[in-house]
Amino acid sequence: MQLARHGEMLAIEARGHSLARRDGIGAAARVGLRDCGLAGDDGTLEQSLAVDDQVVGLAAQLLTKLAHLPPGLEPEQLSTPTAQGDRYDAVDRRMHPGYVGESLLDHPVDAGLRVLPGQITECGQVVHHIAERGSLDQKDAHRRWTEGACRIAESADYSDSALAAACRTHSGLSMKILLTGCAGFIGMHVAERLLARGDQVVGVDNLNDYYDVALKQARLARLSTSAGFRFARSDIADRQAMAELFASDRPDAVINLAAQAGVRYSLQNPLAYADSNLLGFVNVLEGCRQTGVRHLVYASSSSVYGGNQKLPFAETDNVDHPVSLYAATKKANELMAYSYSHLYTLPCTGLRFFTVYGPWGRPDMAYFSFTQAILGGRPIDVFNQGKMRRDFTYIDDIVEGVIRVLDRPPEGVPPHALYNIGNHEPVELMQFIDILETALGKKATRRFLPMQPGDVPATYADISALRQATGFAPTTPLAEGIARFVDWYRSYFA
Q1: In this model, does residue 365 exceed pLDDT 80?
Q2: Residue 44 to residues 14, 49, 71, 97, 207: CA-CA distances in angstroms?
Q3: Which among 217, 381, 397, 479 is most buried, taking Cβ atoms within 10 Å?
Q4: pTM over cut 0.70
């Protein structure tokens, strides 16, 4: 097939040529695209590709993805006519434009050629033309192209957050995000990622004293250096303040991470959980409904699984028996969001977080308090005689999952989705302490105690649903993540 021959030639060219040799690749791309049946008689695609040879070079590398037949399709099958919508047209043996368009969208940029910010729009024009010829959805083509370009820009090959932001800005896909809990652990990291990719962030936080306010202010100071960030000190439980904020900013999407956290603290101050997690969440839902927010992503928790014995925990498991008030409020959030999705067609996605850890973490979490105690020469409290397992999930992996979910609003009836977001690799508490000791270079004095009220012996996330929906896959080993936390801790508290 001509497609295969050109694809193989382009693959050789792409591997062996640098930017200085891109003209030859560009010329080959034009030939290859014409042989794919993508260049019409009017020369429209030719004109689009003629904008810049480097843009054409991108198309060339994308074409290399099409050099081989899909699995299960043999060459002799091409003699049998196929429907117009199939991948191949057996009459002229050209790949159907729709399939080529899909492939281009799935592989927007290859590592061999660098996209320059000013070329994002031109690349997008090529994709749009192919999408049109292949009867693909233009809006979806726009989104997928930009997402792919951003992923490459943020990859290890480039690590260029400015380029990623330019991809979104030039493509007109940057959003205004209302992010509650922005001075919190997860909130700060999510905000940084959103700002780095070119979104505007309106951050909301009440800066309460549940733990060290200075740590929250230090997180906030990191965000305040960005021109795309604006902070609004407010409590989501304040109905009037939240209504005014939604009305004035009219965000495209909302990420609700504000909540009264902590299982054990809910035994001491239950009303704080009712105010923030229940009343506050209703205010967020109402703000989304009144201003036509396109997607609400909200924090749930692995705590909703309570004392379930079946492992790993799956979203389809029964969660009607919470063992703490905190867990009960999170289950209530899921039900409240579902009802708003049903009643008002508000796209909502809940994320059940599993034991998040990493730099800038929460002092009430075990890894943080253990570190403080070990370095301070104090014993650590090991509950349930150490017979505990947790699905520790590194903050960068959590952020990646949140962003992937944010960009994919649910489309079902009602438009509501619920996902576990964890590492899918539970670790014994005693092993975790060993890893922490190694990172600190110091042994702990372990004080073994009974199980705490409201706690559970094990958490373990089944993340297959999130992986299928978004391609999410955690990549950070526990030892590596703990080492990064210890480095940050020593630096912050030096």
Answers
A1: yes
A2: 25, 9, 32, 14, 56
A3: 397
A4: yes
Could you tell me which of 413, 403, 279, 285 has the C-alpha nearest to residue 337?
A: 285
472 DSSP 8-state letter: -
Asked whether 317 and 305 are in contact (CB, 8 A), the reply is yes
Q: Which of 483, 468, 339 is nearest to 408 (CA)?
A: 468
> For the chain, how are helix, strand and coil distributed in percent, rounded to 5?
50, 15, 35
Q: Give helix then strand counts, H and E, for the chain.
A: 19, 15
Residue 76, both tokens: 């002799």
Strand arrangement, sheet containing 229-233 = 229-233, 200-205, 176-180, 253-256, 295-301, 348-353, 416-421
> 417 vs 189, 284, 299, 326, CA distance in Å?
23, 17, 12, 21
Q: CA dihedral defined by 33, 34, 36, 39, rounded to 10 degrees?
A: 90
Q: What are the tokens at 389? A: 């397992």
Asked if residues 365 and 156 have their Cβ atoms less than 8 Å apart, the reply is no
Report the SS3 class of residue 179.
strand
Report the relative pairing of strands 295-301 and 253-256 from DSSP bridges. Answer: parallel
The H-assigned helical ranges of 345-463 are 366-375, 395-406, 429-440
The type of residue at 391 is D
Catalytic residue set: 326
Q: What is the DSSP string of 438-459?
A: HHHTS---EEEEPPPTT--SB-
Question: How far from chain centre, in Å, is Cα 3?
Answer: 35
User: Structure tokens of 286?
Assistant: 């109402």
CA angle 383-385-388, nearest 5°? 65
pLDDT digits (tens, 9 = 90+) for 82-122: 333 344 333 333 334 344 444 444 444 433 334 444 444 44
Distance of CA 317 to the CA centre of its chain: 24
425-442 confidence digits (pLDDT tens): 999 999 999 999 999 999
**Residue 270: burial class (beta carbons within 10 Å; 0-12, 13-18, 19+):** middle
pLDDT of 176 over the 90 cut: yes
Tell me the backbone φ, ψ of residue 295, rounded to 5 degrees: -165, 130
Label residues 8-43 b or e (16+ Cβ within 10 Å = b). Answer: ebbbebbeebeeeebeebbebbbbbbbbbbbbeeee
**CA pair distance 292, 253, nearest whole angstrom:** 9
